[in-house]
Design a protein that fits this description.
Blueprint: E1 7-10, E2 17-25, H1 29-36, E3 37-39, E4 53-58, E5 64-73, E6 84-91, H2 93-105, E7 109-110, H3 115-122, H4 128-139, H5 143-153, H6 156-180, H7 188-209, H8 212-220, E8 222-228, H9 234-242, E9 260-266, E10 269-275, H10 285-300, E11 303-309, H11 322-325, E12 329-335, E13 351-352, H12 361-376, H13 388-410, H14 414-432, H15 438-445
Parallel strand pairs: 1-7, 8-10, 8-11, 11-12, 12-13
Antiparallel strand pairs: 1-2, 2-6, 3-4, 4-5, 5-6, 9-10
């Protein structure tokens, strides 16, 4: 695809660093580079592709702004599929900004967010799922999320979608043939073979759709709520899990009146750990608002950790009716295991933990991992994890495949069957971006950082 203009942007994070990278991509990339940069010996240089050139960035009056390495990639053998220039200079805020302004003054346009990756997609360097994986790779906060992003970047989801398409196209072709030759009709044997093929496609689609929850957890973290009565050690547990004093710990009831959130990893699984206000009957107005927020967090949770004081009677537990409010997995913690356990705890399924000594924390981390793996469908041997956009596409795919199969089973006109199968193909095409989806592209790439 030919794109007329040339874009440029700073591709490294804002702030002072040892290095910064400025990217230029488009048909005028080389001419802009020869205008702005000179070799360290003073001449323009030949800019041999895939070779690091020591250059100086010069202002419009010929003054030196910076010195660094320049690399040239000739399209289509580049990230964007176009002629691409990268200047690796010093990472100061002012000098980097001045070099970029000089590049823009030489004829480039400031790139929009994600425009380099969007051009890579438009030029056939990657499908839409791979383009989305670039941002997942940048934002990955755990090794499982990083692995899933790398698998998606390698084309795992796109390959699955294309495999489904390859199975669906012949079925649609058969139906279209019956439309062209209406006197033939669809025989029972042929119809049964088509339904079997559709069943197989639907089974594979459901398997992919089942990974959406896994994808959400890997990208956003499992929402894990700590709740219980006042002074049972909720904030102490939060501090122990995150490894530093994140929450204030006090013997005064009602110290925590608002929710406190902190991110961490447990065995490679990202968690959004939420400490909540203690639940009790005689709370003041501020505490009651905190308790309302506790209930709201429980409703949204993937995992609920109830903390109770193991040295006190089980009757002292101030319970929120979690079963009625949340379908989340649940762990009951019997805190203060360094003290003698109250006899009433005998036979109660709970995990002993001491936030004073740290005993039981390793076992708790293992239990958190197991519960989230089970609740979120996480599987270390299944790296594919679709996102919310993919989920919507696969849901539409299944909807139209189901409708087409039912129409085929009822012996309806081939035109109705073909209509649903075409809609199913449309949904598959949107997964990898092989249809006219300009609005979808704008939404996806607008979330990218400038320079990527």
């Amino acid at each position: 695809m030919m794109i007329a203009d040339t874009i440029a942007a700073i591709s490294t994070a804002v702030g002072e660093a040892a290095l910064s990278v400025i990217r230029i991509s488009g048909p005028e990339a080389r001419s802009i580079a020869t205008t702005v940069f000179r070799s360290a010996r003073g001449e323009a240089g030949d800019l041999t592709p895939r070779t690091a050139h020591l250059v100086r960035a010069m202002d419009a009056e010929g003054g030196r702004m910076d010195e660094g390495l320049l690399l040239r990639f000739v399209g289509p053998a580049s990230y964007t599929g176009e002629d691409l220039i990268e200047f690796h200079g010093h990472g100061g805020l002012l000098v980097t900004r001045q070099v970029l302004e000089r590049v823009l003054g030489a004829g480039a346009r400031a790139a929009d967010p994600g425009e380099f990756t969007q051009r890579a997609f438009l030029n056939g360097k990657m499908d839409l799922t791979q383009a989305e994986a670039v941002m997942d790779l940048i934002h990955a906060q755990s090794h499982l999320a990083l692995r899933a992003a790398n698998e998606q970047l390698a084309g795992a989801i796109g390959e699955e979608a294309m495999a489904l398409r390859e199975e669906l196209v012949p079925t649609l072709a058969h139906v279209e043939a019956y439309i062209d030759f209406p006197d033939e009709g669809i025989s029972p044997d042929t119809g049964a073979a088509m339904m079997a093929r559709l069943d197989a496609i639907m089974a594979r689609a459901r398997k992919l759709l089942a990974t959406s929850e896994q994808g959400r957890i890997l990208r956003q973290g499992a929402r894990t709520v700590i709740f219980g009565a006042p002074n049972v050690g909720k904030s102490s547990l939060l501090n122990r899990l995150v490894g530093f004093e994140r929450a204030i710990v006090s013997g005064t009831a009602g110290t925590t009146r608002d929710t406190i959130e902190e991110g961490l990893q447990v065995h490679g699984i990202p968690l959004c750990l939420i400490d909540t206000a203690g639940v009790r009957e005689d709370a003041d107005v501020l505490e009651q608002e905190g308790i309302k927020r506790t209930r709201r967090e429980i409703e949204r949770a993937d995992l609920v950790i109830e903390v109770a004081d193991g040295s006190q009677s089980t009757e002292a537990r101030q319970r929120v009716d979690v079963d009625a409010e949340s379908g989340a997995a649940r762990i009951l913690i019997r805190n203060k295991a360094d003290l003698p356990a109250h006899p009433s705890w005998e036979g109660v399924k709970s995990m002993p933990v001491s936030c004073v000594t740290g005993d039981g924390l390793s076992e708790l981390r293992d239990e958190i991992r197991d519960r989230i793996f089970a609740a979120g469908g996480l599987a270390s041997d299944h790296p594919v994890a679709i996102n919310a956009r993919h989920k919507a596409c696969f849901e539409r795919l299944l909807k139209h495949l189901t409708a087409g199969r039912e129409a085929l089973e009822r012996g309806e006109s081939p035109e109705f069957i073909a209509l649903d199968l075409r809609e199913a193909l449309q949904a598959l095409g949107e997964v990898v971006g092989q249809v006219d989806v300009e609005q979808v592209l704008d939404v996806i790439f607008s979330s990218f950082c400038i320079g990527k």
